[in-house]
Amino acid sequence: MPHSDDLLWGAVGDISRFAALLTMAELNVADHLAHGPLNTADLAQRCGAHAPSLRRVLRELAGMGVVTAAGPDAYDLTEKGTALRSDVPDSVRSSIRMLGEESFWYAMGMLPATVREGSSAFIKRYGLIYDHLAGHPDVSRMFDDYMTARAIPFTEGLAKRYAFPATATMVDVAGGKGHILATVLHANPQMRGVLFDLEYVIGHARQTLAAEGLSDRVRIVSGDMFAGVPAGGDVYLLASVLHNWDDDDAVRILRNVREAMNDEGRVLILEVVLPDSEEPHLGKDIDMRMLAIFNGGTERSREEYAAVLGHAGLVISDVVELGSGANLIEARRR
């Protein structure tokens, strides 16, 4: 084999390794191994799998360090593999399942066609992502779990590193299940919140916020952010929202927020901000998914966010590093 860059051959191997992890997540292998090692036949029976096929996947997973041999034809879960259990904090199982879900897997495989034609092959087959999710509740729940898991490190950074006004009302625009809003309110006990999202989403938010004991501090509102957002907030949070839309749509959303917020209000944009350098970066990886799934959705640099905000009559007042590749951009009326 001709010599080539290890990164390139690593990327070639990554597709196989991800497929093995996806199999582990879908078959719930980590949960079945949570209480100790099992031989392949017993594990296959519990997973509802074909034992010889599972054995080959376990061999790959052992090479990745998420399971380990525990005697002849038996395997045990490693500390690294514990992250694929469904019952542990910061589990990555839902994230792996979502990225391997049929429509998302199709989107990434069809990225060359998307780039050739300049429009998403995913949309051509499945329609707009939020319409697709609304019509497929199982996929929607998986997507919600993925977004929740992905947001955990960003959310913890937001609550610890940003100084919220003590008695503010925060409007979480397209706030999903409400986990970010709940984290902020727990950290700021005098604040109140408004959870704003599409009608099919807010049922999950009611359950989450009730379970967090926050029903009396949060108003839940359904609606379309392109038509308007709830008025009178002091802080408007857009977490992983603007990257779903092209610049024109992002400006429409921001103008609606600017019109709705109080005179001294602020807009908080929680996104992965692209660096100006050519170094590898989480945002560049995510941008490939945005390109594959959305027509116009894109990750942006700080300069690009400044331009979008400027068109909406807003100006950046601060940028806070949240860790894990995420940034919080604070903006106010110009």
Outline the structure in words.
The protein has 334 residues and is an alpha/beta fold. It has 2 domains: 6-85, Winged helix-like DNA-binding domain superfamily/Winged helix DNA-binding domain (Arc Repressor Mutant, subunit A, Orthogonal Bundle), CATH 1.10.10; 102-333, 3-Layer(aba) Sandwich (Rossmann fold). The chain contains 15 helices and 10 strands. The strands form 2 sheets. Strands 6-5-4-7-8-10-9 form a 7-stranded mixed β-sheet, sandwiched between helices. A hairpin with a 4-residue loop joins strand 2 and strand 3 (74-77). Helix 5 crosses helix 10 and helix 10 (137-161) packs parallel to helix 11. The longest helix is centred in the middle third of the chain and has 25 residues, at 137-161. The chain is globular and about 70 Å long. It starts with 5 loop residues before the first helix and ends with a strand. The mean pLDDT is 93. InterPro entries: COMT-like (IPR016461), COMT_C (IPR001077), COMT_dimerisation (IPR012967), SAM-dependent_MTases_sf (IPR029063), WH-like_DNA-bd_sf (IPR036388), WH_DNA-bd_sf (IPR036390). GO terms for molecular function: methyltransferase activity. Residues 111-313 form the O-methyltransferase C-terminal domain. This is Methyltransferase.
